Amino acid sequence: MKERTGSAASAPRSRRRVLGGVASAVPLALAGCLGGGSGGDGGASISPVSLDGERACDQCGMIVRDHPGPVGQVHFADDEPEGGRPAQFCSSVCTYTYRFDAEDGGRDPLATFLTDYSTVDQEVFEEGGDVMFSSHVESSAFARTTELTVVAGSDVVGSMGPDPIPFSEESDVEAFVAEYGGQPMDAEAVDRGTLEGL
């Protein structure tokens, strides 16, 4: 990866994540955990939606598209009382926090999606000394957590500060860690302790 330079206002850098051999990416799924929910195959047909427009984060209230870093959505079995739509979030941290609280309240998440930085043209920029990745709210930018590895504790922050950064390709995880540090882990292995340690 390139040396990080520039600022949000002056020189954002665009990076194309090249998807070479998909055989190098091995999902590290833990059955019954975060990505699939407890609804069996009931969530298999669920697709992510676009989070464009003036959509507010269901955890913190910020407008999703207006902030940097990964974004997320959770589809629930209880007919999505968020208003006939999936729960939507401005960061990985907000996605996980809301989901954990919902599960504690007895709700059944069928599918959880996060930005997949292996499949988007991302911009990397610095603002106030923080390194950030661009946000991507189009439906094609999302992948199920069952297909993702996140890097926790890196130098890259999201809209809410330190944020797990998701990738579907192992080579992208390795390149990211080499440049920005952090600890790779299965996206479904993230728990409240992981968030508290960021």
UniProtKB/TrEMBL annotation:
Pfam families associated with the record: NosL (PF05573)
Gene3D superfamilies reported for this sequence: 3.30.70.2050
InterPro entries noted in UniProt: N2O_reductase_NosL (IPR008719)
PANTHER family, A to Z: HTH-TYPE TRANSCRIPTIONAL REPRESSOR YCNK
Protein name: Nitrous oxide reductase accessory protein NosL
Organism: Halorubrum cibi
Organism placement in taxonomy: Archaea, Methanobacteriati, Methanobacteriota, Stenosarchaea group, Halobacteria
